[in-house]
## 1
Amino acid sequence: MIYFEKVSKIYNSDKVPALEDITLSIKPKEFVSIVGHSGAGKTTLLKMLIAEEKPTTGSIFFESANIHELPRAQMYKYRRKIGMIFQDFRLIPHKTAYENISFAMEAAGKPDEDIASDVPHILELVDLSEKANHFPRQLSGGEQQRVAIGRAIINQPDVIVADEPTGNLDPMNAYEIVQILQKINEFDTTVLVATHNKGVVDLVGRRVITMERGKIIRDDESGGYVL
Amino acid sequence: MMKVADTSYNIIMKWITFRRMFSSGAKNFVRSGIVSFATVLIMVVTLGIISMLIFLSALLQQTLTAIEQKVDVSVYFVTTAAPSDIVAFQNKLKQLPQVAQITYTSRNDALSQFRARHANDQLTLQALNELGSNPLDASISILAKNPSQYDSIVKFLNTGPALSANGTSIIDRINYAQNKTVINRITFAIGATQKIGIGIALIFALASIIIAFATVRLVIYTSRDEITVMRLVGASNAYIRGPFIITGVIAGVMAALIVLLLLIPITWYIGGETTLWFGGFNFFLYYRQHAVYIASIIIGAGFFLGSTASFIAIRRYLTA
């Protein structure tokens, strides 16, 4: 489903590559944890997948398409297949929780009736029905992350990509977020989580890719957090 | 049948997309509060300067037209000229295609006008009375259809078309040459004022347009993270750009409406105070008579300014 072929990334200002010769394959319905210290290359790897960064060398394929060769006009359609979750939530500040979620559906051109029926359902799923009309500044960190998850899954993407989704959360909220991600995966959505939270990785107990200095140093089919 | 259904679906979807972009743009405008207020304020200044440019241009144009209308050729007749010869001469002039209007002032009329003009000058009137007879000449003033035609009228007058029964000329003098010099100077001065005035106003307008552009750019700069998120959740560039352009248009049109409203008391006050000073040009009257024209320009400029500034400002964030 996702294939990284000898991908390297060197930023202009750096002598050390952010990613070096990464070859990696991810199958549909997998739950993959990518672990490593800060600066190991986890975020760069995910940014390549969502086409926010271009590789210096190598290619990344999503199904059969080389995503960095997609025409600009096709890029947004590709991104609709991926739901993104960030450490800093990245909600639109002047939209309510409801509007932040419905925006993803509106942008995908979904009819009003579908939006009216799906958004309340997703808000219920992430346990935020009561706070649908709250703006992000009126929500706690955990609640904001749940809105971000709602936005990521509303269009039923093929893949969920989460970059340190629990980084700004307390253990209780982090546990809830991981449970939601596991539930999403149970509905056959591929999930990629970059984290350095040992508790999260151990809780999931699925495939773990360990990175160090831009390289993959371990790839365990079923494992825990080992560094 | 299938094609018709597809077309209808596409039209409906385009309408829904536009409605969503409009609604989102309007909400952004309202929710951005102080930022929207600042943008509108800057645009009010810009559009205010543009409206000043319109009034300045109209004022200078009217002054030029008024001066052009004051240009005429005055022909003074010898005191012995018979009225029948003058009438015959007038008839000849009327046949000239360049002539728009001829006004005859008899010797008695000239005397009455002179007395009225010097009603408070007893010394002059006394001197006039002591002369015992009317020393003033009868005259006609000739107005050309176009100021450039005076030369050809004067050329005609110099061919000696006004002769009395005994063959002598009844024309005493033609004052076009000295009038022409003065009028040319005034026209040149007004033309220069018009160019310099409009030039300065254009520089101001340009400066304020740049400031308005910079303000909109700053507003969109503060939304750059939001734009990145929109891209990452799969919004097309057009769908991201739309609400920002709508917000810009709302700010521009709102600023235009404020300027149009503010112009009512401003032109009313200036009009009352300065009509005599500006040679009869009344700002309020001009605004009332050209309300649709001015409103179209100001609202059009607001629309253009808001949409173009937003379009250009957001372009750099939609490159990937």
## 2
Amino acid sequence: MTSTVHLEIPASGAYLAVARAAATGLAAQLQFTYEEIDDLRIAVDEACTQLLARRGSATTLNVAYRLEDAELRVDVSIEAPDSSRPPLARDTFAWQILSAMTDEVREQSEAGRLWLSFRKVGGRG
Amino acid sequence: MAELPQGGRTRVSEVPNAGRVHQGPEASGNGTTPLNGRAVDRGHAKDLFRRFVETRNPALREELVGLHLPLVEYLARRFRNRGEPLEDLVQVGTIGLLKAIDRFDLDREVEFSTYATPTIVGELKRHFRDKGWAVRVPRRLQELNLSLNKVVAELSQEIGRSPTVAEIATKARLPEEEVLEGLDTSNAYAVVSLDAPAGGEDAPAVSEHIGVEDESLEALEYRAALGPLIAGLPERERRILYLRFFGGMTQSQIAARLGISQMHVSRLLNRTLAVLREGLLEDGETG
């Protein structure tokens, strides 16, 4: 069964704690371990920060959390006028962080919106 | 746009600096300093100081303290949102005041309050630094955090892997809700022993790896701003960064390797990332 939680926060670093806290609570439900939760929090921080750095005049940041059996998928997105440029290049340190902290990272830009998504499997100790 | 909260986590400079603070009481510009509805009569204060410098009479010292207590209270209130009772802060600030009184030199062409402010603020800052909490954390959360640290360490040892929130809650006899609160707090606030000089316990092992690590880090075309930031990190932080993000090691494995706790690795990692991101969002702000 899949449940989804949508979060819309002001496009400001001051609200990252909310995105992190939501991830923490949901991961706990999925029986993620303490370390996995910490990794997840780092990934949420990183993805949000990277998109905030591209926010331009965007006022909100959207975070969707999809809960599956033992897996949490997080989609972070923001409105961006210059969606011709990918949200995050793969040869960046940020991409490396996201890859190391999660099981899969994706980036996408379409119709004036930038996306960073990742998937993390929990409960593996 | 508001600043990243992580910035506050690591930067003690978030604390109102002395330069800014002392403009408050000095701003009136006339012969008295209105604080708390009370006024310090500067002529009287000067007279007291003159006599104190000559005689070192403790009674005069005490009178001087009483006279300038409003300044201490004023400055202590600047720090009151950090989870410490105001009266404790006033006490800490008073230590600074005493130091300033003992050191004040009448020949200096400077008002005592101007002279004393940095000393008092310095004492207050040191208080928070020594406690390891650079930003306000309610005492309850500090205690929760300390007990969770212990439980996580014990459980990891017992079961041979990182515990889940449910397991931590059972062991700590706390509702899961509270454990989550503790997790949220741990890296948002903890700066405990992070400022310990690098190159301590893990110093000997660093040199053999550092070349490889730098290569991996440099292979990335990270933003121009990030390069110097990473280069400027203490060796241990850089090493943890490398082992976690490039070496594929878990926090526990890194902890074992460096001989520190997993929670400590977590804190160091989070703080390092906060430092790196701070630069990034500042870029975002201006660009």
